[in-house]
Write a structure and sequence with these properties.
With 214 residues, this protein is mainly beta.
């Protein structure tokens, strides 16, 4: 069980479940994943088996040309902002992220754009728009296979794209609603993107937090 008797998410136990999955995949487990920089989250939904994630930010850089690093740059982009990230997403079998979008923020950055590289396992990507990458309608999926939240008033995604290890899928449009769900063996996904900034969830009451005791 991923939850303690008081309703709190059992963080050590759940982290070990992710680590066991990594070993099963033959994924190298760096020392960073033995620290608090490896985080997990159930978004306050108390349904970690179906909705949640583990992750680590390898880098989430934000700066200004000419004011970062050695500060020797004097080209045409001087004074402009830049940002980039490298992120690993860990999903247990059948587990999914909540539907969300990125809309920029107070730091002066544009909405986050991103792409996902499946390293191990398989993933279904869900999104608001058809990007012409082979997406099909969620409504055409067997009812038993439709994602958590489908049919609720807050749910926005309409399309799904199934992808396997080695494939890359990118966000269809800025500020569009999206999420992903792992296949039967779980998934390890590398995310490439612009600076990670404001995230907004479609379902009210969600947050980037773990459920505490009731």
């Amino acid at each position: 069980m991923l939850y303690q008797v008081d309703g709190a998410l059992d963080v050590p136990y759940t982290k070990q479940a992710y680590l066991d999955m990594m070993v099963d995949f033959g994924y190298p487990v760096p020392a960073k994943l033995k620290t608090d920089e490896f985080w997990i989250c159930d978004f306050l939904q108390r349904d970690m088996e179906k909705l949640g994630m583990g992750g680590v930010l390898w880098i989430n850089e934000a700066g200004e040309y000419g004011k970062s690093g050695a500060k020797e740059y004097s080209g045409k982009a001087k004074g402009q902002k830049f940002g980039y990230l490298g992120h690993e997403i860990y999903l247990l079998p059948g587990q999914m992220l909540p539907e969300h979008r990125h809309i920029g923020g107070a730091g002066g950055f544009s909405p986050k754009m991103e792409a996902w590289h499946i390293r191990h396992g398989s993933v279904e990507f869900f999104g608001q728009y058809d990007s012409g990458s082979g997406e099909t309608l969620i409504s055409e999926m067997p009812e038993s296979e439709r994602p958590w939240g489908y049919g609720e008033s807050w749910f926005k995604a309409k399309y799904v794209k199934k992808s396997k290890a080695g494939e890359v899928y990118k966000l269809a449009d800025p500020e569009s609603w999206h999420f992903q769900r792992a296949g039967k063996d779980g998934a390890i996904v590398t995310e490439y993107g612009t600076n990670h900034n404001h995230v907004e969830f479609s379902k009210p009451g969600m947050a980037f937090k773990c459920s505490a005791k009731k």
